[in-house]
Amino acid sequence: MKVLLLKDVYKLGHAGDIKKVADGYGRNYLIPQGLAVPATPGAIKQAEYIRAKAAATRSTLNEQMSIIAQKINGAVLTFSSKAGEMGKLYGSITTQMIAEAISHKYGVTIERRQIECQPIRLLGEHKARIHLTVDLVPEVRIIVHREGEKIEIEPQTEAETAVASAGIDTEETNQ
Predict the structure, then answer these.
(1) Of 64, 67, 149, 150, which one's alpha carbon is 20 to 30 angstroms from that of 37?
(2) Is residue 48 scored above 60 in pLDDT?
(3) How does pLDDT run across 2-14, given as a tens digit for each residue?
(4) How many domains does the chain have?
(5) Is residue 137 a contact partner of residue 129, using CB atoms and an 8 Å limit?
(6) Percentage of the residues of the chain whose pLDDT score is greater than 90
(7) What is the CATH number of the domain that holds 28?
(8) Which domain, by its residues, includes 25?
(9) Is residue 58 a part of any domain in this protein?
């Protein structure tokens, strides 16, 4: 089935695009959620208008979210957890825990669905991508260490180097 997207849909397309999707996906998800309409001749005529309106909305949203993206891009989050001898965690670090840590540390509300990361089940350094908008996807470093151990974080980006040289502590431990 062909649909005209009314809003940006992650991994499918931008508003105003005409896409061919599975019948069930279109009928049961995209259309009821208000993300798309069937691609009829009348709807296709409105595609350019929808595209222009969505581009304007997307640009204003990108401007607002760019401040948040700059705050959290390259951020370092540390988690202490109990782990076995081989470095496997008893439990895992989930996207919900990452979202709460970002919210607590930066005062920015992020939903767990915006975080692209598998549950972390091993000690060490991991990366997670945060989808603020379709165009803005900052990345954060996640360091998981054994409970009771002290760790030293090495800055990797220029921003982190500047923060480290200014003497500001970027480490935060969440339990």
Answers:
(1) 64
(2) yes
(3) 999 998 887 898 8
(4) 2
(5) yes
(6) 34
(7) 3.40.5.10
(8) 2-45
(9) no
